[in-house]
Structure formats: C-alpha cells, structure tokens
Amino acid sequence: MKDSTTNIELEKAKSHIIIEIIEYLPNAVVSKTIIKKITGNITATSFDAGEELEEKLLPFDTYIQIIDGAASLNMNKKDFNLAKGEGIIIPAHTRHHFSAKEQFKMISTVIKSGYEDL
Q1: Is the pTM of this model over 0.70?
Q2: CB 99 within 8 A of CB 45
Q3: CA nearest neighbour of 45 among 94, 81, 99, 93
Q4: Arithmetic mean of pLDDT, 103-116
Q5: 117 has pLDDT over 60
Q6: Residues 6+ positions from 5 with CB-CB distance below 8 Å
Q7: What gap in Å lies between CA 30 and CA 118, rounded to an integer?
Q8: Quick one: which of 42, 68, 83, 85 could link to 34 by a disulfide (CB 3.0–4.6 Å)?
Q9: pLDDT at 115
C-alpha cells in the first residue's frame, strides 16, 4: 500500500468541488489537508479498493463523512458500512480502522478544543 499525504491547505476564499480535490491512485490511500490548525483539522482521503489503514486511537472526537463510494469502518470491534452522504462520529479514545471493499473518499474533521475541561 502506498500512503500519500499532502499537508498544503486549500486556497482560502475560493470555491471548490469537494469530491474533486483528491484523486484515486492505484493501490494507495491518499490524504490532502483542507485546513490544519492547532485546534483541529479537516482532511480529504481517498482509498483505492482493497486498501485499509491500520487501527488508530485518537484523543479527540472525529467526524467522518463519505463523499464518494462506500466505506467499511470497524470501531471497537463493531462493523459499520457507510455509503456516500453518510457520516459518523468516532468518539475520542475509540479504536477504529477503515477498509475499502470498493473505492471511496471521505472528509474527516477533528476538533481538538473543548477537551480542556475534561
């Protein structure tokens, strides 16, 4: 699996078509940063069919929205099948991983503020 990440933010004050900001690459998972700040980030990611990411555990809530295709998400050993247009919140400190039975693209939003009071 090839993993490609671009950390350059999208141009501000310019419209874009969200599904076109990231392409599929054969045998790869590709990520592009939309916004990256100390308080959180928004990232677009594409998965070629058959690709997956290793299990993660993040200290922050993460909102996932599928913008093309369909994704398989395993969260705390429970499977979720997400279709285009669907979203899900992955709670902080929850083990999860994605796999692609078919190509898919997603937007992930991580909000890092608000945890100071916990």
Answers
A1: yes
A2: no
A3: 99
A4: 87
A5: no
A6: 30, 31, 32, 33
A7: 33
A8: 42
A9: 61
Output the DSSP codes for the chain: -EEEEE-PPPPTT----GGGSS---TTEEEEEEEEEETTEEEEEEEE-TT-B---B--SS-EEEEEEEEEEEEEETTEEEEEETT-EEEE-TT--EEEE-SS-EEEEEEEE-TT-TT-
Other CB atoms within 10 A of residue 118 CB? 5
Look at residues 66, 97, 95, 68 and name the one whose alpha carbon lies nearest to residue 1.
97
Q: Burial, 117: exposed, middle or buried (Cβ in 10 Å; 0-12, 13-18, 19+)?
A: exposed
**Tokens representing 74?**
């395993």
Give ∠ CA 19-53-9 in degrees, rounded to 5: 45
Mean pLDDT on 6-15: 79
Q: Which amino acid is at 82?
A: L
